[in-house]
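Students often ask why we bother encoding 3D structure as a string. The short answer is that it lets us treat folding as translation between two languages. Here is a chain of 627 residues written in the first language.
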Amino acid sequence: MCAVNGIIKWNGITNQDQDKVAASLKEMEYRGPDFSNLYSDSNCILGHNRLAILDLNPRSNQPMFSDCGRYTIVFNGEIYNYKTIKSDLILKGYQFNSVSDTEVILKGFIEYGKDIVCQLRGMFALVIWDKELKEAFVARDRFGEKPFYYYNLNETFAFASNLGGIVPLVEGDLQISQQAIYELLSQQYIDVESCIYEGIKKLAAGCAMTINASGIKIKPYWSPDYKEKKELSFEENKKQLHQLISASVEEQLEADVPVGLFLSGGTDSAVIAALASKQKENITALTMSVPGNKDSDEAAAAAFVAEKLKLKHKIVSLDTNCVADLPFVLQNIEPLADASLLPTLAIAKEARKEFTVMLSGDGGDEIFGGYKRPLQYEENPFFGNFLTRNLVQLIIKKSDIQPFQFVHNKITDARIFKWAGVETLYHLKSLPHKQTQRLFKTPQTFENVLVKKYKEASFFANSEQDKMLYVGVKSSLTDDFLLKMDTANMFHSVESRCPFLDHRIIEYTSKMTTDQLMPNGIDKELLKSIGSEYIPADFFKLPKKGFSIPYYEYLKTSWGDVLIRFMKEGISDEMNLIHTDSVLHLINGYKISPTFKTGKILYSILVFEIWLRVFHLKMDPESIKLI
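And here it is in the second language, the structure alphabet:
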């Protein structure tokens, strides 16, 4: 886990460019506090901040150079199968100066070229500079666990690991993207194809990029593909997946620093904990407790799992003062309105007291059919026609006015599936048309990126259930959940690892139908069956709980008052971004008659207003008082 950055200029590097890269590294120092260094030549500067995980010796510091001096690498992430690749390279005559995964990638690139990325099993954002060809090769891992921001204009290509790192490398004023704000308010995160700043881009998960004087070429090297199916029994599938997940956990437990577990009271982290406990003695699990909030507190369920697995277990009570961290983390990133960011920050802070690496259960829902939507579609396949579809879409579009609002409140996912189809489900993630017009100070027409991804899914999936799984992997998993985990853990210099995101696992489950994954109509049935070999089956019948904070309650009182104060300051209104009066009307209505959907919109606006102050306008985070 580290931070990478750099500038490539075809008309020559200047001293000012070196100063920019150094300033960018300083902004990302928390991501890699153990070592920092630069490489530069006439056309390229590469920077790296290191959080040492494997081979703590300085010989593994970066930027790292090939023995011949032609190639230089900066790399953020971990490669879990590096020993296997290294063994193959040794057989081919390569010698190694370290025991790090970085050197394996570099020498693998020399041997296999750009195809090395297909051999890597892990999380990564990497850049390899060829000073003879004056060409850079960039790749991001299959699921997007590691972020990669870049900016390309005229003769300059710049990149960094987060927004805070890329901005110092950009020339000229940056304009805030209305499309990105729309996505934030609609779905609480910003899609990979957008950025809060116009002109700054993000490399998509599973993509590689080549940069030279002729321009940029981006090519996908991997995507989940659900079209091919295999007929195997439940028990055979269970056996194969059990082995795959166990192997992934074993690989991801390896580190030269202390490793722990994040344990909630849910299925995913419980299965990871069970398999980890069989492979590493005396491993410790951390659980976040939310005292007094029975809807979110999973401490009792997690304690049950820990006792059954004989884990060392620490329960950390969520301090409501953790909300004060929000302005500080928003100094570094794009605005992210996932309310679970705050408790994730809090438990990462606690983890750092003892551990540098933590394993989590992220990805289990997207890979094994969680959230119940595939099952709901099985029970409620599309039965309508273009008239019923158009009627439901009209209700969604006008859901902020009566009588459509009343009908909209009665709409469930099951009813949408039956009368309007799966595509319409993603229209629910859009702001209503009139509300959009009232909130935004622009006539701009916004794009629903989830509908776009649903249409894209047809190239990789045949059934509607598989299309939903594809959209989940390509949207919220990467751009919300994994960004949240990277942001929160790196904020406290902790590396989070996700064993379910070993691509061999999804390449197996994607060949299974919904009936094979969940033959008895139980969500994540196959995964729960694996877990039942270690933990009593009744545990997996417990209802799913969210890992969040009660922001919807805070918005009725103190946070609502903070947002009112922000809006009356008129900053976003004066910048022609958001209408003050429309937001004030929304808050006042929410305090009288709160709804979950309005609460999410208001929380997203609050996050944006904080980000606007602490990131864009560089205000002191200490000045933002949320409690």
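Translate back mentally: The chain is about 45% helix and 15% strand. Keep this in mind for the problem set.
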